[in-house]
Fold this sequence. Notes:
- The complex is a heterodimer of chains A (234) and B (264).
- Chain A has helices spanning 2-39, 43-58, 61-84, 90-96, 103-128, 132-140, 145-175, 187-198, 202-228.
- With 234 residues, chain A is mainly alpha-helical.
- Chain A has a single domain (2-231), classed as MetI-like fold.
Amino acid sequence: MFVEVSLKLLEGFGVTLKIFLLTLAFSLPLGLIISFGSMTRFAPVKWLTKGFVWIIRGTPLMLQLIVIFYGPGLVGTWAEAQINAGASGALIEWLATWHVMDRFFSVMVAFVINYSCYFSEIFRGGIESISRGQYEAGQVLGMTKTQVFFKVVLLQVIKRIVPPMSNEIITLVKDTSLARIVMVYEVIYAAQKFIKSDGLLWPLFYTAVYYLIFCGALTLLFGWIERKMSYFKS
Amino acid sequence: MSILQVNGIYKKFGKTDVLRGIDFSMEEGEVLSIIGSSGSGKTTLLRSISFLETADRGTITLDGEVVFDAQNTLKKSKSEQRKIQSKFGFVFQSFNLFPQYTALENVMLAPRLAAKELNDYHKHKKEILHEIEQEAKALLDRAGLSDKYNNYPCELSGGQQQRVAICRALALKPKIMLFDEPTSALDPEITNEVLKVIKSVADLGMTMIIVTHEMNFARNISDRIIFMENGVIAEEGSPEQIFCHPQNPRTKEFITSFSQNVEE
């Protein structure tokens, strides 16, 4: 039984890993773009971005998952009802084509949006913490703004954001369990199945081992990165 | 013909007038020190000359070419602007070395980036980079840092960092070196090593403007001294005149307060 449970959980943890890795791959670059949006001097973009980040960080990820998974379907049903009641027009017809998205896809959309916003704030903090003197030193040496960013500022920013980033990324590992709310088969869901089918509770507790091992490995990785960058102080 | 001409520079921060009409000019090879109490506008003047601040009014002419004109914001292309920028070497009070690069890399970074814009860069890449490295090493050697090429700024003392920063500014072969209180962030016992390097740069005939609180140093190194007060040049003259026979009562007060400090 133990082997069977282990293998099933491993299968579930594969999905957990997939959510984790895909979220990172998309939300890190997107987060950087959003951070530029919240730092721009162009006020409309700045306030739109800040408003968006406020909404995403100010509501539970679980709620966002539900809205993204059920929302389009509800809109589609509502629009169809309007058409049946005699409404017409391009917009309402387009809305009527909305339907429930693939479960895994909606999970990815919610996670990427949510984590981009969190990452964007970490990037912003890192970028704004670099002293003006570094930019000025680049300027008086005749460097372009792009050169100053990539050759001078970026590595210092990365060094500074490793600790908050590692914190956020480890939170992401455990947040993946929220995918269960829209029935995506990740490790918690895999364990819960044993409650229903075999009346076993321990597989659920056993999932902790998977999380612990993975988070432990991440902690080692981030520690290694921090040591790698300890050759300079900024 | 003078190498630098500064005419009618005004600068406001919010409602505060920091510079209220600054005029002076410099000959090639001249060493000019700017003294005055904190808040008199010395640093802002230096920063305006090197485009770190944009003056509200006035013109700056370098080597016969108008490099700044507040009235006529003739759009210079960015590469032109950077070319002009690199004619001014700037040394900061707080060094501002790039922490992730070694001393040698700090000195080589800007020349290497500038070299990429040369037409024959790709053809002679190796020679160009080699030459930049040799020049950077020669600069560090002259500043007494031949054993510190591969040290990161965090491994250097403040005095050593400032000497690297001076080399970094010299590496672009500027026309004029600007020093903004180069020893103010240093412990008194290591200011001398930095002052010595600045002196050696002056001895090579470099045109320099030094904003400083080191009165003895200013007196010894300068050809001319400007005393600033409330955003204007209150008095200007030879070190002898400023330190021994100041005409303006404020200059007298300022100089006296400094010599008293020394006696204490």
